[in-house]
Write a structure and sequence with these properties.
elongated, 14 strands, 33% helix, DNA polymerase, domain 1, 10-stranded mixed sheet, alpha/beta, binds S-adenosyl-L-homocysteine, TIM Barrel
Length: 428
């Protein structure tokens, strides 16, 4: 990193802000004023925190304190409305953050049709009051998912809640690290290696920057959040957990609207289950047996399927919560009927659903996208085995914003694939 890293308000929690104002000899309620300004109003400079006395702001500035808002360096808009942001930090590093506006079918929670089905279920009057606690009593959402799945009832947004009028159900996909160390063989981010962890402020800052740019604000606007951008959140665990708390308590995004996806860092999955405030859990399964998974995801050599499935089974799910398993389908590699049957076996009896993602291609990725028939065939086998299974719609493939395509605009924008070029529309 190097250089003096200024102290930024973004990323500080209530306790830290209380300590900061106490140190300056200011009354305790100033901490709340800073929380409000930074996380809810999303100011970008100390000057804008007009609730603070000028001399306190001057003092903070003298001490090298800044708000620490990351900068949107580039912005690409897809034909499907998806926006890919390149967001830069104080030390010159950058990550990608993706905005997926509501669209045909809607992106919700974890960006899948399944989550939308679940949300619709949760809104049925009389069914969404707090109810059964124990996991075993909690069968309704899965039943609802299965109904939606089999009856193909997924529709776009149309319902009654007044806040829908503004933005519907948009999803922000955020990054947790610059690059990634996990080395999944089908993922473009892996090619970068890992440069560094993001701070909690840099994780929250991506959300603040995008909300501001899109002129939306939770909770009035319904915003879902997925930790599915660059990096492995569970290899930056402390900062990720702190960021999720700040997103809930500061920014005002509900826990049930956030999902974190892990490649399978087993000890952290166990820790995560014990967090008081936490997003929902998604696990990137991507293979149906150890031999295949170890080939596609080298981390399987450290934490194999038995360990991963044990952690998933032990995971303390909340009322109306389930685990999502993501499965990237790679043509003629992991997409055969017998693979689907193996997956069904692995997941038997678990409160979960599966999101299938047909490979999003990229330069340097030696796999191919399966045919739509293969994808449907795989889905049908899982559904027939009783596993709610959904196919994730690719978003923003034309601008390299889809799953596994985040590799930082600098590289992609300066040397785009020929067929990608016409769709680029840089706005900054
Ligand atoms: N490191 C975390 C978060 C990244 S989430 C994780 O692995 O879960 C990104 C999701 O996209 C993961 O489920 C991953 O398996 C999937 N993915 C990676 N590369 C992809 C590609 N080329 N096409 C489609 N999905 C991909």
């Amino acid at each position: 990193m190097g250089g003096i890293v200024p102290l930024s308000l973004l990323g500080m929690d209530r306790e830290e802000l209380v300590a900061l104002v106490a140190q300056a000899g200011e009354p305790g309620y100033r901490a709340q004023q800073i929380m409000e300004s930074v996380y809810r109003r999303r100011v970008e400079s100390l000057d804008e925190i007009s609730t603070l006395p000028q001399q306190f702001r001057d003092g903070l500035a003298r001490d090298g304190v800044t708000v620490g808002t990351p900068q949107i360096e580039k912005k690409f808009v897809s034909v499907d409305g998806t926006v890919r942001y390149l967001i830069g930090f104080a030390d010159g590093q950058s990550v990608e953050t993706v905005w997926m506006p509501e669209g045909d079918g809607g992106e919700a929670g974890d960006g899948s049709e399944a989550a939308e089905a679940a949300e619709r279920f949760a809104e049925v009057p009389g069914l969404n009051s707090s109810g059964a606690k124990a996991q075993s009593q909690n069968r309704e959402p899965i039943a609802a998912l299965k109904r939606c799945a089999t009856q193909n009832q997924i529709r776009s947004v149309d319902r009654h809640s007044p806040d829908r009028a503004s933005t519907g159900r948009s999803t922000i996909c955020i990054s947790s690290q610059v690059g990634c160390a996990v080395d999944c063989q089908f993922c473009l981010t892996a090619l970068l290696g890992v440069k560094r962890n993001l701070t909690a402020g840099e994780i929250v800052g991506q959300v603040c920057a995008v909300l501001k740019d899109q002129k939306v604000s939770p909770p009035e606007d319904r915003i879902n959040l997925v930790f599915m951008g660059m990096g492995e959140p569970f290899l930056n665990y402390e900062n990720f957990v702190k960021a999720s708390r700040l997103l809930v308590e500061g920014v005002g995004i509900a826990e049930r609207r956030m999902t974190v996806s892990t490649a399978g860092i087993v000890p952290r999955i166990r820790d995560f289950g014990g967090e008081a405030i936490r997003p929902k859990l998604a696990i990137s399964l991507n293979a149906s047996n150890d031999a295949l998974r170890a080939r596609l995801m080298p981390l399987n050599k450290k934490w194999n399927l038995e360990m991963l499935m044990a952690a998933a089974r032990d995971f303390p799910l909340r009322t109306r919560e389930w685990i999502t398993f993501e499965y990237v389908l790679l043509g003629d590699v992991n997409d055969a009927p017998e693979h689907a049957r193996e997956v069904a076996e692995l997941l038997r009896g678990m409160r979960c659903k599966v999101n299938l993602i047909a490979l999003n291609p990229g330069p340097g990725i030696d796999f191919k996208t399966p045919s739509p028939e293969r994808v449907t065939g795989f889905q049908n086998i899982l559904r027939e085995a009783g596993v709610p299974t959904f196919v994730r719609r690719p978003r923003g493939r034309d601008i390299y914003a889809a799953c596994g395509q985040l590799k930082r605009t600098v590289e992609v924008a300066t040397s785009p694939e020929p067929q990608m070029q016409p769709a680029f529309r840089a706005e900054r």
